[in-house]
Structures are given as structure tokens and as C-alpha cells.
């Protein structure tokens, strides 16, 4: 039997962070990768390819709709070339950031294959058994298949198969108004597909602030994307090679059709085939692995991290969890994450970014909310570059005015959110932000302006008032 200090089941960000941490600690580790190529979802079918294609789509779409009268530009786009280009990028970055990195970790061995537990501290891969003092499960997630009548009888796309298309569909229905659904909806719309997005909740981005979601919806609908919320999908059929979706809105039924159907309504953990019960590992009703705050399962020798534990399905969160889980496995388990301090983003255009508490959560915790929202028209940079899309929202503690949450719709919101993240993490107040000199004119001033809105009427304020 092959013996290691640590067995890592998975090959994505949580697994690589764990392998790096184990190597730093002088431990021998075996990484078992099955399913997607090395690098996992983010590298192969998630963050990297989608952001590449979103940028290509943006360059094409907005060049035909310039914000300035002085511009007279035209451009063409080849969808097939864009898809080939993104595959070339994936191969290059996978080699550089994963394959070559793994070669440099001398105490880490890679085995390709599907792993399953055969005992509390051993696993089997392709007939070979491996044992370790500690095991980390980091198997990620995949598309959650909805129990919609007829869905199993039609060909549908997800974030994996959509990236295999070589011809642009004339029309597409996207089921799911979360980050993934919105990004793919705008991506295909910018390339030229007619896109209809369906969301069961009352607004897109159900976990976001309603006014943040409303602003993004306004922006997307102005670009021609049809968004239907509060819908119940009754059935899905296929007729003349087109997908037919029957949905209920209020008391009426409606049928819509498109060439392609993309499912983006949540994730399910990749845990079904791991034989977890043999190792004494418990899951919740949806298959996510149950862990304590130190990422330890009911089996004290087995830890879990990343999407398969169902905390926050974000690449940097998975990496942080993987590193902390490994450190906890070989030392006193004391390292964990405050998830209130984790920023998240949606890479639509404009982008959405958020950190900390929402207004609803502040109301739940304190029975009151001290919140302010300002429009992009209150940010001087927006006037300078003719950008009217976006809002900034801030929630502060009702007693000490510490910043509890910031939520942004803006160009480059994913970059802007880090000032807010530091403010939330380190308990800064609105006065700390106001007292900090910001570069003028920048979109980052939106964070300062929304902080100032707690103390003055910023609509009657010059550009440079403290």
C-alpha cells in the first residue's frame, strides 16, 4: 500500500493550495485528479475562459455603440476564432500555472483517475490503494440539474459544453439569474445572440441587494437582453431543433423558443461517487460535505474544502480553505475564515461587486439599518467619461458607524471592491474613508462619496469637498 502524509482528492484551486501548503510544511502529498483537466473549474470552464470571452464580446459590442459622438468605429467578430483563442489561452495558462507549478513541488505526486474511499484513511484509484494520515476532499462542483419535466429529453448546455460551441447560436434561453447565468447571457448577447434569461426569484442576483440587482437589470435590458423574473418553468420540449420552454408568469402560461438552452441555476457537489459513508463522512441533504469551522469532517482525519462544502463557490475562497484545511490537519486546528470579509464579483458590464452585510442582513442582526445608496451621476469621473451606469451602496453599524457592507455596480467594480474589503475587515468607519485622500477623478471616489452621503447632501457638494 502506498503511504503519504496527505492525500488530496481533486485538482482545482483548493487542491493546489493544499498541495502547496503541504509542500511548504515538508509533507508528502498525493493529488488525485479526476474529471476536468488539472486546474479544475476556474481554469478550464469557469473564471478564465468566461472572462476572456466576456472581454472579446465587450470589445465588439461597445465598439459599435460608442459613448462619444466623436467616435465612428466599426468592427467584426468571428465567434469560432474567439472560441479557438480561448482554448489556446486555457492550454497556455494551465501549463504555466498548474502543470509547471506541480512539477516544482518535489514532495507532491499526481495521479489521474477517479478516487473512492475504501476505509477511514485510504482511497482507491484504478485498482491501486493509497493511505494517508490525513485526507483532503476538494472535488469541486458541477451544474445542478433542475427537476424540470422534459429537461432530460433535450440537449442543453452548461458552462462546460457552452465553451465547445463553434458556431454562434442565433438565440439562447438562459435558466438562472445568478452570476454564471448573467455572465453567459451577456457574453452571448454581445456576440450577437438573442438572449432571454429566466429567473425563479423576484429579481436577478437573488443573494444581492435588490437595488443593486435592479440597476444591473436596467443596464442589461438596455442592451437588448430579455429578463423574466418570478417565473415557474412548467416543461421543456424540443421542436424542429429548437428548445421550447413553457413557463408560468402569474396566472398565465407562455411558451418561448430558442436555438440553445443554457442551464445556470446553481451547483451540486461532486461527492456522489466518493463512497464517503465508508470513511464516516457526513453530508447534508444536497450532498455537500459537512465540516466544522476548521474544515474537519466527522472523521477527524479527513478535511474538505472548496465548492464541495457549499460555503462560497469562489476560486480564491476555495484556495484559502484548501490552505487552511491543510494547515489545520497538521497543526492545532485554529485557522478559519470570516466569510463576512470575503468580496465577490459578477463580471458583467458594468460589473457587480460586494463585500460584507446587505441591508437585509443588517436588519436581521441589529433590527435596524443605516444604509445609503448613490447613483453614478454623483461620481465626477462618470461625467468625465460619459458613463451613466452604476450605483454605490454602503451599510454601516447603527451605533459606531463602522462599515459593515459595500455593494457596487460600476465599471471595474471587481477592482474597486478591495478598498471596501479592507474597510469591512479592519472595522474602519465612514470617517476613516472620508479622511482618506482619493485620486481625482476616479470611480473609486464612489466609495468615498457614498461614505460622505451619511454626513451631507452630496448633490450640493463640489468635486473636492472633504
Detailed description of the structure:
With 466 residues, the chain is of the alpha/beta class. Helices cover 30% and strands 25% of the residues. The protein is built from twelve helices and 21 strands. The strands form five sheets. Strands 1, 2, 3, 4, 5, 6 and 16 form a seven-stranded mixed sheet that branches. A five-stranded antiparallel sheet has the order 17-18-21-20-19, sandwiched between helices. A four-stranded parallel sheet has the order 10-9-8-14, covered by helices on one side. β1 (2-9), α1 and β2 (29-33) form a beta-alpha-beta unit. The protein starts with a strand and ends in a 14-residue tail after the last helix. The mean pLDDT is 95.
SSE inventory with pairings:
Layout lengths: L1 E8 L3 H12 L4 E5 L6 H5 L2 H17 L15 H25 L4 E5 L2 E3 L4 E4 L2 E10 L3 E3 L27 E5 L3 H13 L2 E6 L10 H13 L3 E4 L2 E8 L2 E8 L2 E7 L1 E4 L3 E3 L32 E3 L10 H16 L13 E3 L4 E6 L2 H8 L3 E6 L4 H5 L6 E6 L6 E8 L2 H13 L4 H5 L10 H8 L14
Parallel strand pairs: 1-2, 1-6, 2-3, 6-16, 8-9, 8-14, 9-10
Antiparallel strand pairs: 4-5, 5-6, 7-15, 11-12, 12-13, 17-18, 18-21, 19-20, 20-21
Helix pairs in contact: 1-7, 3-4, 3-5
Amino acid at each position: 500500500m502506498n503511504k503519504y502524509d496527505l492525500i488530496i482528492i481533486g485538482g482545482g484551486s483548493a487542491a493546489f493550495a493544499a498541495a502547496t501548503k503541504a509542500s511548504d510544511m515538508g509533507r508528502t502529498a498525493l493529488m488525485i485528479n479526476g474529471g476536468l483537466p488539472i486546474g479544475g473549474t476556474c481554469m478550464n470552464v469557469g473564471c478564465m475562459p468566461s472572462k476572456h470571452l466576456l472581454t472579446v464580446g465587450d470589445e465588439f459590442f461597445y465598439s459599435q455603440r460608442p459613448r462619444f459622438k466623436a467616435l465612428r468605429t466599426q468592427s467584426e467578430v468571428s465567434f469560432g476564432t474567439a472560441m479557438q483563442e480561448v482554448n489556446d489561452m486555457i492550454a497556455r495558462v494551465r501549463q504555466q500555472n498548474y502543470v509547471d507549478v506541480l512539477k516544482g513541488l518535489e514532495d507532491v505526486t499526481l495521479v489521474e483517475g477517479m478516487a473512492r474511499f475504501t476505509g477511514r484513511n485510504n482511497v482507491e484509484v484504478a485498482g491501486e490503494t493509497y493511505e494517508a494520515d490525513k485526507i483532503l476532499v476538494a472535488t469541486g462542483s458541477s451544474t445542478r440539474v433542475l427537476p424540470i419535466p422534459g429537461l432530460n429529453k433535450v440537449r442543453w448546455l452548461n458552462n462546460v459544453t457552452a465553451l465547445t460551441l463553434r458556431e454562434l447560436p442565433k438565440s439562447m434561453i438562459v435558466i438562472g439569474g445568478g452570476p454564471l447565468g448573467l455572465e453567459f447571457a451577456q457574453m452571448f448577447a454581445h456576440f450577437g445572440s438573442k438572449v432571454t434569461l429566466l429567473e425563479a426569484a423576484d429579481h436577478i442576483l437573488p443573494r444581492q441587494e435588490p437595488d443593486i440587482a435592479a440597476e444591473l437589470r436596467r443596464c442589461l435590458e438596455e442592451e437588448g437582453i430579455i429578463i423574466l423574473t418570478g417565473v415557474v418553468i412548467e416543461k421543456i420540449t424540443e421542436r424542429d431543433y429548437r428548445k421550447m420552454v413553457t413557463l408560468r408568469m402569474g396566472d398565465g402560461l407562455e411558451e418561448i423558443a430558442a436555438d440553445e438552452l443554457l442551464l445556470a441555476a446553481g451547483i451540486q457537489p461532486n461527492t456522489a461517487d466518493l463512497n464517503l459513508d465508508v470513511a464516516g463522512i457526513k453530508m447534508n441533504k444536497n450532498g455537500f460535505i459537512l465540516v466544522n469551522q476548521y474544515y474537519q469532517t466527522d472523521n477527524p482525519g479527513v478535511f474538505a474544502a472548496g465548492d464541495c462544502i457549499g460555503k462560497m463557490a469562489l476560486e480564491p475562497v476555495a484556495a484559502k480553505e484548501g490552505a487552511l484545511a491543510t494547515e489545520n490537519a497538521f497543526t492545532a486546528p485554529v485557522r478559519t475564515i470570516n466569510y463576512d470579509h470575503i468580496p465577490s464579483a459578477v463580471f458583467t458590464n458594468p460589473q457587480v461587486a460586494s463585500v460584507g452585510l446587505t441591508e437585509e442582513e443588517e436588519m436581521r442582526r441589529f433590527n435596524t439599518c443605516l444604509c445609503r445608496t448613490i447613483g453614478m451621476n454623483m461620481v465626477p469621473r462618470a461625467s468625465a467619461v460619459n458613463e451613466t451606469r452604476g450605483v454605490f451602496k454602503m451599510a454601516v453599524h447603527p451605533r459606531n458607524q463602522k462599515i459593515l457592507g459595500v455593494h457596487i455596480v460600476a465599471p471595474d467594480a471587481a477592482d474597486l471592491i478591495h478598498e471596501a474589503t479592507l474597510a469591512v475587515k479592519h472595522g474602519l468607519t465612514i470617517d476613516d474613508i472620508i479622511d482618506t485622500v482619493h485620486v481625482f477623478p476616479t470611480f473609486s471616489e464612489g466609495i468615498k462619496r457614498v461614505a460622505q452621503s451619511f454626513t451631507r447632501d452630496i448633490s450640493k457638494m463640489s468635486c473636492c469637498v472633504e
